[in-house]
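Long-time lurker, first post. I've been practising inverse folding by hand and with some scripts of my own, and I keep getting stuck on stretches where the structure tokens seem ambiguous. Below is the full token string for one chain I'm working on. Before anyone asks, I'm not after the true native sequence, just a reasonable design that respects the backbone. If someone could post their per-position residues I'd love to compare against what I wrote down in my notebook.
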């Protein structure tokens, strides 16, 4: 391995360590308490080294949120691929989204700015709208299959996204006084009623 390749690999390793340390700190202390100084201390480098790789904390948060959206996108596609009918696909996609949110709370909070400023404002990537796109596709296919007006697909799928994201947000921000089973039951009933309404 040449000197250039060795240096490049070392840079990539430090960059990955910065992101890993930031995510680890967020899990233990929360996103709000994250700082460039704490990240530098965690990887045992000086703060200027961290600034060599990322302009500021927001750039680190954005990078982590991209990874979160990418992981979510993969989970949604896996769920969709297991079923043939748009109705089954829709239910599976919503369930996968729900499960991702609660298995990866730190990612979800960062991705959607729950209790903090949303990262990456104005820097949208394809994966950011993956869930909305997939439920729109299923909604459109169900409406078309039922002989209803396909022009309603956009409005209807947006309403479902709002309901699902709203339930997750309530659950995450008020988890001490709302039973998880109640919210999952509400989610299932909402999706079932949504499919029937199409």
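-- Answer (accepted) --
I ran through it position by position. Result:
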């Amino acid at each position: 391995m040449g000197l250039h390749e060795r240096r490049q690999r070392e840079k990539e390793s430090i960059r990955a360590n910065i992101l890993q340390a930031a995510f680890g700190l967020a899990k233990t202390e929360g996103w709000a308490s994250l700082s460039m100084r704490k990240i530098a201390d965690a990887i045992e480098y000086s703060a200027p080294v961290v600034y060599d790789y990322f302009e500021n904390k927001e750039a680190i948060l954005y990078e982590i949120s991209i990874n979160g959206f990418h992981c979510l996108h993969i989970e949604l596609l896996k769920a969709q691929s297991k079923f043939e009918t748009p109705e089954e696909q829709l239910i599976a996609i919503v369930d996968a989204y729900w499960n991702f949110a609660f298995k990866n709370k730190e990612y979800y909070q960062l991705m959607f700015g729950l209790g903090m400023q949303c990262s990456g404002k104005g820097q949208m990537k394809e994966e950011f709208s993956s869930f909305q796109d997939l439920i729109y596709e299923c909604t459109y296919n169900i409406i078309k299959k039922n002989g209803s007006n396909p022009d309603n697909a956009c409005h209807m799928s947006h309403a479902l996204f709002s309901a699902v994201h709203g339930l997750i947000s309530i659950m995450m921000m008020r988890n001490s006084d709302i039973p998880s089973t109640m919210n999952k039951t509400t989610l299932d009933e909402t999706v079932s009623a949504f499919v029937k309404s199409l």
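A couple of notes from the structure itself: The radius of gyration is 20 Å. Residues 3-29 form the longest helix (27 residues). Happy to go over any region you disagree with.
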